[in-house]
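Quick one: structure for this chain?
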Amino acid sequence: MIAEGFASVMLDPFVILLIAIGVVVGIIFGSIPGLTATMAVVMFLPVTYTMTSTQGISMLVALYIGGISGGLISAILLNIPGTPSSVATCFDGRPMAEKGEAGKALGTGVIFSFIGTVLGVLILIVISPVLASVALKFGPFEYCALAIFSLSLVITLTGKDMVKGLISAVLGALLATVGLAPIDSKPRFTFGIVNLTAGFKLLVLLIGLFAITEVVKYAEGVRKPENFTIEGNVKIKGVGFSLKEFIRGIPNAIRSTLIGVGIGILPGIGGGVSCMISYTVAKNTSKHPEKFGTGIMDGVIASETANNATIGGAMIPLLSLGIPGDAVTAMLLGGLMVHNVSPGPLIFQKSGSVVYGVFFSMLIAAVFMCVFMLLGMRGFIRVLNIPKNYLLPIIVVLCCVGAIGDSNRLFDVWGVLIFGIMGYALIKAKIPLSPMILGFILGPTFESNVRKVSQLISRDSVFSHPIFCVFILVTAVVVVISLRSNKREREALSKEKQ
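Got it. Here's what it folds into:
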């Protein structure tokens, strides 16, 4: 099966061409705010109908890899995450660009995206049956504990003012409650508006908080005699960073890969959570946590390695159990079925050569992604030379198109504008935006599972769920470490002022 899968990909020039096209299109979709990897897969799914199983699925996974990786471009250059998986890349990628290190930030993101993808695929190949069996043991208790653990990381993301950070997280969780309630599907906070019954989309929230807020911030100071463009003629030597810096980032990359794969294998979580968790873990374990958010490589490494490793993790339950790990793999599930590949425990017996062909396609797509993005890096940096009064209106239009395309609702454009104004007001109040995103993502997971747990707790003891107990214990440890880290950060800042 391995030999047949290898031959079906490596010895077929047309498959190689399809993978290359898929990666390029995916990078374009990922780099444009509002046009995500999910949209790329959805739009190109009909194109693969007439192809063979290996050809069609290879193109779809190439779109997936290119789309997730492409999000770092706009995150670093424009402070706008191209995909939800690139949110944490903005935290240090953009400050690096503002310091004249755009080339270094892009090079770091591309190389470690490649590493995360390759390691994630290798883990997928080697231990997917074992990890899939573990995922089967996750029920309401385990998902509830996982959500509590993830929400505990808000303490790290709050910055200097924990109260304002918690306000941001609670606000994000409250926004996630708009629409139909889980379990009983009762409408909440809809105020009689039909469009609110579907709730707010994560993409709409991200575009508003990052893209529109950036435009409003620029508009505020447009009359000031200030140069709003950053020097884009950056000299890039090699990939932008030294071998010593690369070696120093390897432990961070390995840890972030494991986090990305672990989060990816849990259905419904996705790269948006994995990049945030990886970033906060990197900050907690760093000797200099106060430097995170000021423009350091470690933040970009953690985010980009984790979100690309999530690709391999998300494919594990998809192939082994037929359960999609995120929105993109949900689309890939449809693609597999269209090409008569039935995901599940018997997939290796029934379609083993196709599955191994997909594995080789993912590795080739990772190589293409790395090559194309490194070759285009100097061109990407030239975006910084474009005056923002020309660039930002185009971005707003593309964002609105992306918002409409996600759910085909004009209402989402109004949502983007409202969230943009709200984000600007929060920045003025010095309330961080990142805890709001984490609260918005994890709020529904926590709510739906805690309601299930409340129904089961009367006849099922928490001590009969060892995974739940482990997560709660780890959460307590993380909270203590995070509080100590915040205390050290405040002490370091006070010493600097003195």
